[in-house]
Amino acid sequence: MDIRNDNEAQAAFEEITRGMTSDPNGSVLVQEMVKGQRELVIGLTRDPQFGPCVMFGLGGIFTEILKDISFRLAPLEKKDALDMMHDIKGHKILDAIRGMESADKDMLVDILINVGKIGLENEAVKEIDINPVILSGSRPVAVDALIILEEPNIS
What we know:
With 155 residues, the protein is α+β, with helices and mostly antiparallel strands. The chain has 2 domains: 1-30, no CATH class; 38-149, 2-Layer Sandwich (D-amino Acid Aminotransferase, Chain A, domain 1), CATH 3.30.470. Helix content is 29%, strand content 28%. Strand 1 (38-47) and strand 2 (51-58) form a beta hairpin.
């Protein structure tokens, strides 16, 4: 975390790999350190009655604390995605505030529509949880994600 140069990256890599005694063939994932003060959540759940439902809301720790989220059935159109953004109580977090740029709503729309498409096109996908999606300037960046697949039917 907060690695600023090649030497720090090499030292961190060596420290991590020294601790990988249980799986010497393991791997290390390196990604950009994303900074931002606003966190969102985007997801998908497969409802047994309605099918794939897309979720949008406040992310990070606020997902559990405030439960400020909105759902729509997939497939989504641009209007649906924009409505979801406006439905949450904290929708002003997407606006320009305190020197921060407004969120790139077009990018958020694309993400929401595509998460719905994944649910429609892949029956095996039971859930998707992208949390947090950090606003780095205006750009939404998925920092952590989890996809849960249906257990295969073994008869």
